[in-house]
Write a structure and sequence with these properties.
single chain, about 240 residues, alpha/beta, 5-stranded mixed β-sheet, 10 strands, about 35% helix
Length: about 240
């Protein structure tokens, strides 16, 4: 069995539609919307093609009309693009985001998975880097062989006791120093981090057409082209 695991698409439909893998199932670890230019297409694609989806902080924000609690440097970008997302999404699409579960547990073959956007104790907002000592405490809270998380936009695999913590990185707004989309594949008990190139300039062109302040637009384009946050702060 082959499962493709993606996270943090952030309304980047060019990246999502270029996904090169075949798969038996596809799982999404949240943040379908905000920052990117095509939230409606992303939501429709996810609803039509994926098997498991959990809610991210930006999905919750758009679905419930509340603050995504982004980090200081990204707060203006989050708020500006949330207004775009709320304008472009239909009421049923927003309802879909609002009703996504914040965590789920499932088994495939002999492996038990736990899925959430951030960490089990704070599934929407808690920012926890891969090298944090906190993961030992988080893994003790769950019964899982593999804990799947997103939120940091940085891919990683880390063994914590008997649990493997896997972050596939961001498909639509990576922070790896490269613009390539990041994802993970679990197949027959093995898990691997992977990347692929997509037409970044298509997303850049779409962002230029949005009614955004020039500084916010330029920062979003910088993140896409460089795979790096702007000089101040980190994305969440």
């Amino acid at each position: 069995m082959k499962v493709v695991i993606i996270s943090d698409i952030h309304a980047n439909f060019a990246a999502l539609s270029a996904l090169p893998e075949s798969y038996d199932e596809i799982w999404v670890l949240g943040d379908l919307v905000n920052y990117g230019p095509r939230p409606a297409e992303v939501v429709d694609w996810v609803r039509a093609h994926t098997d498991v989806v959990v809610c991210g902080n930006h999905d919750h924000a758009v679905g419930s009309a509340c603050d995504p609690l982004a980090s200081p440097r990204f707060r203006e970008m989050a708020h500006a693009t949330q207004r775009v997302s709320e304008f472009l999404l239909t009421p049923p699409q927003k309802h879909y985001l609002k009703t996504l579960p914040i965590r789920t547990e499932l088994r495939r073959e002999e492996t038990l998975f736990y899925l959430c956007h951030a960490v089990p104790s704070g599934p929407l907002y808690t920012y926890c880097p891969a090298d944090s000592n906190r993961w030992a405490k988080e893994c003790r809270k769950i019964r899982a062989d593999i804990l799947l998380v997103g939120h940091t936009h940085i891919p990683s695999i880390r063994c914590v006791g008997k649990c493997t913590v896997v972050n596939p990185g961001s498909l639509g707004q990576p922070k790896t120093g490269s613009p390539e989309a990041c994802y993970a594949v679990w197949e027959n008990g093995d898990i691997e981090l992977k990347t692929y190139a997509y037409p970044v300039e298509q997303t850049v062109s779409d962002i230029r057409r949005l009614a955004l302040p020039p500084g916010i637009r330029d920062d979003l384009i910088h993140v896409l082209r460089k795979g790096q946050a702007p000089a101040r702060g980190d994305a969440k």
